[in-house]
Amino acid sequence: MKLEHSPKGKIDFNQYNLRPAGSYLDSTKSTLDELLRQVEDADEAAKKMLGELGGRGGAAAPAQKDAQEQTAQPKPDVDELLAQLDELVGLDKIKANVRSLINLVKVRALREENGLPVPSMSLHLVFMGNPGTGKTTVARLIAQLYYAIGVLSRGQLVEVDRSGLVAGFVGQTAIKTAEVVKSAIGGVLFIDEAYALAPGDGTNDFGREAIETLLKAMEDNRADLVVIVAGYEELMERFISSNPGLESRFNRYFLFEDYTGEQLMAIFRSMCAKNSYELEPEAEAFAEKHFRDLYEQRDENFGNARNVRNLFENVISIHSDRVAQLEAPERADLVTIRKEDIEKASEM
Asked: Whole-structure pTM over 0.85, yes or no?
């Protein structure tokens, strides 16, 4: 039955045999059995009307569609995710740690299925290392791996830092942190520079409120939430030891070491290849020396892969300025990076 409307745009309830509510309860006109039958008929008519409203784009239709799409979304393949992990430059220890962690979770699930005791364990992680060492990328892969093997229900990664958790007024930090946690349920909450939540000066900082809220949320949602905190090695060790609750929930540490000069060069080559750029021999030799020197002379501001990306973007900009001045650039001009391009970029 198609949904008909009155001239004023209102629904014609008569077509569904619906009557004013009071008429069903007029016992002078109907017996009790007749009243019950009429109520049942009215209930069926109401369900039919609401169903047609939803089918024609009513309020219920989008929610039902979203639920169906989320249910139908296929889980990622574990082997494909591990292959993506293996493609990352360097990180040999991290790759081994991730595989060991996934194996541990898999065997744990098998023991549960066979009625064997399973020791309690925390899946929350501490990532320690300098910026640009791949922490966010690995966190995203772990979220997907946990989803693929059934540990998490959705597998999304929610990335925040102190500013995303801490508010400026009393009482608001707990609300702000709780909202972030809610968005991460079913996946991984990745807190970068987490040590900023617990400054070591002993002040009454709102970051402590965020930590307490976070710890409670981790306990309340321990079956479907994983938290990864990240930052510099020394500062993260101090952060975890600042609160007994943090020490009890975070007992697995991944150390992300700095990329060597050769690994930085490998990342640079990969960026060039993915964007269809080619290095002439002189340019490649210059880049190799540049990254080797960059690693050997690194300090606390060393950005690892971020340094590589910055150089690559500067090289592309300088290359474009050079090629744009040519009257009729050929394909070779469009794809070839010269030594002079990298020299100028390294000085920026």
From this structure: no
